[in-house]
Design goal:
- The structure is a single chain.
- This protein is mainly α and about 725 residues long.
- The protein folds into four domains: about 210 residues, Neurolysin, domain 3 (Orthogonal Bundle), CATH 1.10.1370.40; about 60 residues, no CATH class; about 160 residues, no CATH class; about 130 residues, Collagenase (Catalytic Domain) (3-Layer(aba) Sandwich), CATH 3.40.390.
- It has 30 helices and seven strands.
- Strands 3-4-5-7-6 form a five-stranded mixed beta sheet, sandwiched between helices.
- Helix 7 packs antiparallel against helix 9 and helix 21 packs across helix 27.
- The chain is globular and about 85 Å long.
- The two termini are about 45 Å apart.
């Protein structure tokens, strides 16, 4: 069975990434356990029901309850195990249809359940849910292990993977078989019984540790809120002040102003606040998440996680975790990933040195008598931006209305993908929070229904920070064509009633980025559910590429209008934005690369005596990390790599994908029709979006571009010297 990781919370990602196509097995067939009458009674549980209603059925977000989750999991997991047993014990000779295809069909109830689980974990967490989550993590690991150690199942997969059978399959089927086989082989299917047992034990321990790591970070985000008085608001834009007042009111602190411990609150505060001591406090609170020496400190958890990961890959014969992780990625090896990052690193830190010099000069001119520190970077960078480019971020923000940007994304989707987004009738599709809105997606040329798109835009208590995309249901044709249920989730600060949501240019780019992930899901033409996934250092490419359409004249002229006057952004301001496109790239590139390099280096060492804080300090020192910048995600709250394994030894993938992005963007820039060139857009959808993981990404990109991507496209895009 294939559980798509996009449906599952980060707490379960590690187990799923190891047990995906969860199929390794015991020396004896698993005993098929009949569903008891008590279990049959549980079929009335709303979490287990097939989705009903319009649009091919939709999740019943409005009726499900956390209290039903544990019993629902018990039934759904047993149903899945029963299905796997039938496949494994089939007396007929193994074929694609009776083995691989049947695995693709299995586990439907569990997949539906995890759509709900993911929402509770990411969008509406609570103490009640976390208590259940802690119980389910080991139960899921045990369930996964039963499949992973099913030797009869793996024997059938291996038989279908034989050259004789493979040559009879079409290319999409061959790729599915290869991915399924690799998942098993890479996750212990060929191990001896004792090693398999230990492998499963490690997975269970890791799942629990990942959950605790994520819970600790969330606790520090929820528990640290800075409340300001009116006298402490110097420099802050009116829109931010209104949002901070609303955030305080929602927390029972009416009359105060809340600075929450999230990036969407921290970043603008550090950019505009004239209160340097408060900037330092906000900076220290944000970047010390998970690193406060209290019950939510993550440093010891990191050491345990790294040691267990290292032990597990050694069972498979790999020298380190990164070597195991990258074997089927575009980068192929840690050395290739590090080589890319180290090629860009010198130019990035050299640019930081220039940026800091410019900021220090401004501070000196203002008579501020300070030496630029990390909590000053955004503040003085904004002043340099005004000085060098006569560009005010707050002025730009007045033209970046959330609703208008959403319409801009719809416009781009219409031009490139022929998608049309129409709001569904309120109440016709259940949602899990009043802030969530839903649109129907159709092909505007054919009228064909494609799917639904859910948007959950605002920050709130119990919602994880950041921005992400997920799918509640992916495209498949194996039992009739299904429509896609895709979602985007952000953490914008909700405005006061009657006011519009204004966001920064960076946040606008992120909004487009995550929408790129949604379009990737909605464009899918693959037949098999497992192929809706992707190769980690490739899947960010499509979303990064979509960011480039925010810069296009069509979007700027039509949708970037002033929130008060309704007038389009003046060309003088547009020219300034484009002129300043590479401004502050030293900061952006260095904070990201520092995190990516730490991630890779943590996963290429023997972690026997690891001290996470010490390793971070010493590694950054060896890299000559500028003291005015900190990692984008410091190790104690680096959820990408320690709340699960989706990005572990893979955070470099954003830059690997950015090379593809920059190269593809140059193709559009040079096309006759520019970024809206119809012929190139058709190739984009055909070769880079619709095929998902049904085609090797290297071959897919070559089919689109006619060549491999050039790293110097990235260097040109960031304003860095090209690599010789």
């Amino acid at each position: 069975m294939k559980l798509r990781p996009s449906l599952i919370s980060s707490a379960l990602i590690s187990t799923l990434m190891l047990g995906c196509a969860d199929t390794q097995t015991t020396s004896q067939p698993t005993n098929q356990v009949p569903v008891t009458k008590a279990a049959q009674a549980e079929q009335s549980n709303p979490l287990l029901q097939e989705w009903s209603g319009p649009y091919g059925g939709v999740p019943a977000f409005d009726t499900v309850k956390v209290s039903d989750l544990e019993s629902a999991f018990t039934v759904a997991a047993q149903e899945s195990l029963n299905e796997i047993d039938v496949i494994a014990n089939n007396p007929a000779a193994p074929t694609f249809d009776n083995t691989i295809l049947e695995m693709e069909r299995s586990g439907k109830a569990l997949n539906r359940l995890f759509a709900y689980f993911g929402v509770w974990s990411s969008n509406r967490s609570s103490e009640e849910f976390r208590a259940v989550q802690v119980k389910l993590i080991p139960q899921y690991a045990q369930y996964s292990a039963k499949i992973n150690r099913n030797e009869r199942l793996f024997a059938r997969i291996k038989a279908v993977h034989s050259p004789e059978v493979m040559k009879s399959l079409n290319p999409e089927q061959q790729r599915l078989v290869q991915i399924t086989y690799n998942n098993f082989a890479q996750n212990g299917a060929t191990l001896e019984p004792a090693a398999k047992k230990r492998f499963a034990e490690i997975n269970e321990q890791l799942a629990q540790l990942h959950t605790q790591f994520a819970s600790n970070v969330l606790a520090d985000e929820e528990n640290y809120v800075l409340y300001l008085t009116k006298e402490q608001l110097g420099g802050l834009p009116d829109s931010f002040v209104s949002a901070a007042a609303a955030a305080a009111k929602s927390r029972g602190k009416e009359g105060s102003y809340a600075i929450t411990n999230t990036r969407s609150s921290m970043s603008p505060f550090l950019t505009y606040s004239t209160e340097r001591k408060l900037r330092q406090k906000v900076w220290e609170t944000y970047y010390s998440r998970g690193d406060n020496g209290d019950k939510h400190d993550n440093n010891q958890l990191i050491a345990k996680i790294l040691k267990l990961r290292h032990e597990r890959v050694q069972l498979l014969g790999f020298s380190n975790y990164a070597e195991w992780r990258l074997q089927d990625r575009m980068a192929q090896s840690p050395d290739r990933a590090i080589k890319l990052m180290e090629a860009v690193w010198p130019a990035a830190i050299a640019r930081v040195k220039e940026e800091v010099a410019d900021m220090q000069a401004v501070a000196n001119k203002l008579g501020d008598k300070i030496t630029v520190k990390p909590w000053d970077y955004r503040y003085y960078a904004e002043k340099v931006r005004k000085q060098k480019y006569d560009l005010d971020s707050n002025e730009i923000k007045q033209y970046l209305q959330l609703d208008k940007l959403r319409d801009a994304m719809f416009y781009v989707a219409g031009r490139l993908f022929h998608f049309e987004f129409t709001p569904v009738k309120e109440g016709s599709v259940p949602v899990f929070h009043p802030d969530v809105k839903v649109w129907e997606v159709t092909n505007k040329n054919t009228g064909e229904h494609v799917g639904l798109w859910y948007l959950d835009p605002f920050a709130r208590k119990g919602k994880q920070s950041g921005a992400w995309a997920t799918s509640y249901r992916g495209h498949t044709t194996i039992d009739g064509k299904t429509n896609v249920l895709s979602s985007n989730n952000s953490n914008f600060i909700k405005p006061a009633p009657g006011e519009v949501t204004l966001i920064s240019w960076d946040d606008a780019e992120t909004f487009f980025h995550e929408f790129g992930h949604a379009l990737h899901a909605l464009s899918s033409k693959v037949n098999y559910p497992s192929l809706n996934g992707g190769v980690r250092d490739y899947t960010e490419f499509q979303s990064q590429l979509l960011e480039r359409w925010l810069f296009t004249d069509e979007v700027i002229d039509r949708f970037l209008v002033h929130n008060k006057t309704g007038k389009p952004m003046p060309q003088s301001l547009v020219k300034k934005i484009k002129k300043a496109a590479t401004f502050n790239q030293g900061f952006a590139t260095t904070e990201y690369l520092a995190s990516a390099l730490i991630d890779m280096k943590l996963h290429t060492i023997d972690p026997a005596n690891i001290d996470a804080d010490q390793f971070e300090r010493e590694t950054l020192k060896a890299l000559n990390m500028p003291e005015e910048i900190v990692m984008r995600h410091r190790t104690p709250h680096f959820g990408h790599i320690f709340s699960g394994e989706g990005y572990a030894a893979a955070y470099y993938g954003y830059m690997w994908a950015e090379v593809l992005t920059a190269d593809a963007a140059e193709a559009f820039a040079n096309a006759p029709g520019g970024f809206y060139d119809e012929a190139l857009a058709e190739k984009l959808v055909e070769h880079l979006f619709s095929v998902r993981n049904a085609v090797d990404p290297v071959e897919a990109y070559r089919a689109f571009r006619g060549k491999d991507a050039d790293i110097n496209a990235l260097m040109r895009a960031r304003g860095f010297p090209v690599v010789r």
